[in-house]
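BUG: 3D viewer hangs when loading the predicted structure for this chain

Environment: internal workstation, default settings.
Expected: structure renders.
Actual: progress bar stalls at 90%.

Input used:
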Amino acid sequence: MQARRAGFLAAGGELIANIDADTVLPQGWLTTVLEEFSCKQTLVALSGPYIYYDAPFRIRAIAYAFYKVSFLFYLLNRFILKVGSMIQGGNFIVRKDALEKIGGYNPDFSFYGEDTDLARRLNDVGMVEFTFRLPAFSSGRRFAGEGVFMVGWRYSVNFLWATFLKRPFTENWDDFRTAENK
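Structure tokens produced before the viewer hung:
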């Protein structure tokens, strides 16, 4: 999260892309972003799911099903409960002025729930959209290190904690980068 904060403070543009080091953007990603922001004037953040390029098919299928269930929570939170939205931490773009309005990144979140907290607070100043039209490719190394169900559990509980209790459930995390990625 410190890298996101540093990028935000240094950014001079209207839109800030938050892309993780192990994320690969597919062709057309930026075109989709610019089209969405140009036709939706109240849009303050746009995000999409990951496709885990190095994970076995079974893990990719479970992750896809997880995103489908998560999308239902996104719809529930955004349109019915009106308590927030959903952002995928390493695959989103945000208006700089909206990020400034909410005071930037919350230092209470160091890893888990940081994206949910941001989506919840941004939802107060404009539209935060999660769409399957904006996928990005990312490493599945966390699944390999912790297991798909443990990762799903941690992210789910932290999503709920950040949405309703406005704090992270888990403050510690394991670093699964390889030596060449550090």
